[in-house]
Amino acid sequence: MIFKTTNQYWDCQCDGSYIHPSNIVICTVCKCERENGPDARVTEVQALGLALSTVTCAKCNLQSYNQHVGNICNHCHAGIMQ
């Protein structure tokens, strides 16, 4: 099964309260680090009522929940994400 994920949040290894904003680099409970935790599932972030922003490519109109490095679209590789 494929899940949409977002790099605005990440998952640690805790059984509960495992979704953290991307600016938190380590879980104070399980000590998992951001670089070792996967991006969070969009559905789980939304279920918790956490803020989730989207960006849209000006060229191909793709909407994404991820922050793109250099504002380059992962789909068309040319558009400017806004």
* Tally of helical runs: 1
Beta-strand percentage range: 15-25%
Largest sheet: 3 strands, antiparallel
* Alpha-beta content class: mainly beta
What is the typical, i.e. mean, pLDDT?
87
Q: How many β strands by DSSP? A: 5
Number of domains: 2
| End-to-end C-alpha gap | 29 Å
Helix fraction by DSSP (H/I, runs of at least 4): under 10%
Low-confidence runs (pLDDT<50, min 5 residues)?
A: none
Determine Rg (CA atoms, Å). 14 Å
- Strands ordered across the widest β-sheet: 2-1-3
The coarse silhouette is elongated
Order of helices and strands: EEEHEE
Task: Please characterize this protein's 3D structure.
With 82 residues, the chain is mainly beta. The chain folds into two domains: 1-51, no CATH class; 53-82, no CATH class. It has one helix at residues 42-47; strands spanning 5-11, 19-21, 39-41, 55-56, 63-64. It has a three-stranded antiparallel β-sheet. Strands 4-5 form a two-stranded antiparallel ribbon. Strand 1 (5-11) and strand 2 (19-21) form a beta hairpin.
Summed up:
The chain is mostly beta strands and 82 residues long. 7% of the residues lie in helices and 21% in strands. The mean pLDDT is 87.
